[in-house]
Design goal:
alpha+beta; Arc Repressor Mutant, subunit A; 7-stranded mixed β-sheet; 9 strands; about 45% helix; WH_DNA-bd_sf; WH-like_DNA-bd_sf; Tscrpt_reg_TrmB_N; Transcription regulator TrmB N-terminal domain-containing protein
Length: about 250
């Protein structure tokens, strides 16, 4: 059966058999409760709790709040590309089948939570995959603290972003790192402005047309993603106000 083959592919990518079953069930069902995911995966509810936590750490499962109720949603299948580089070609061959299985509930708004540095890093990779040519990529951050989390990963991310044909504008908390980076802005295809002295930030905000990312830079490392046009547009307006006020 096709489902069995796709679950086998997930196992080959490095997931355990039960992780593969839970991820695929969540992928097929869309945002849903642990009870329904467990039933679909034919696993005990108590087992699924621990598996979902493991998948969240890998950036493959997120939480959505529906009122006071938590629902769990599988990450977009392209995130699997980040898991094992050696299996990249095999995954791409099966990607259309995963995308055909992926269920979106059609609602206008979603809120997702990413817990742990690796999960947050997968989100950064997703952001550059989702942005389109000539779109705005807006950031407000403490560049020094951001780089300290994993300088190698984030410098590679900056270089990857620089190759895209997008409009990148950055607002940095004042620091030696921020001022040094500003001198290199042309090298990275971006425009940088420094926020007023005394500004203190412990979060990184990224704004692209399809999503708003709020990344906490202090422990516990986590991020919230909001996909809502009204909220995104409001945050863009606020960014533009700050941008115009700064020299």
């Amino acid at each position: 059966m096709k489902n069995d083959r796709l679950i086998e592919v997930l196992t080959e990518l490095g997931l355990s058999e039960n992780e593969s079953k839970v991820y695929f069930s969540a992928l097929s069902l869309g945002a849903n409760t642990i009870l329904k995911i467990a039933k679909d995966a034919n696993l005990k509810r108590s087992t699924v709790y621990s598996i979902i936590e493991a998948l969240k750490q890998q950036g493959l499962m997120h939480v959505q709040m529906h009122g006071l109720k938590k629902k769990y949603v599988a990450a977009h299948p392209t995130q699997l590309e980040q898991m094992i580089e050696k299996k990249r070609n095999d995954f791409k061959k099966h990607l259309p089948e995963f995308l055909a299985t992926y269920h979106l509930d059609g609602k206008e708004s979603t809120v997702k939570y990413y817990e742990g540095l690796k999960a947050v890093q997968s989100l950064y990779d997703e952001s550059v995959q989702r942005i389109k040519s000539h779109e705005d990529y807006l950031v407000i951050t403490n560049q020094e603290q951001w780089l300290q989390l994993d300088e190698r990963f984030f410098m590679n991310y900056i270089k990857k972003r620089a190759k895209l044909n997008i409009r990148t504008r950055l607002l940095f908390q004042d620091s030696p790192t921020a001022r040094k980076h500003k001198k290199l802005e042309k090298n990275f295809n971006e425009t940088v402005k420094i926020l007023p002295t005394g500004t203190t930030l412990e979060t990184d905000m990224i704004l692209i047309p399809s999503m708003l990312i709020i990344h906490q830079l202090v422990p516990p490392i986590m991020a919230i993603v909001i996909e809502n046009k009204s909220i995104i547009n409001m945050q863009k307006e606020l960014f533009e106000i700050i941008w115009k006020l700064l020299k």
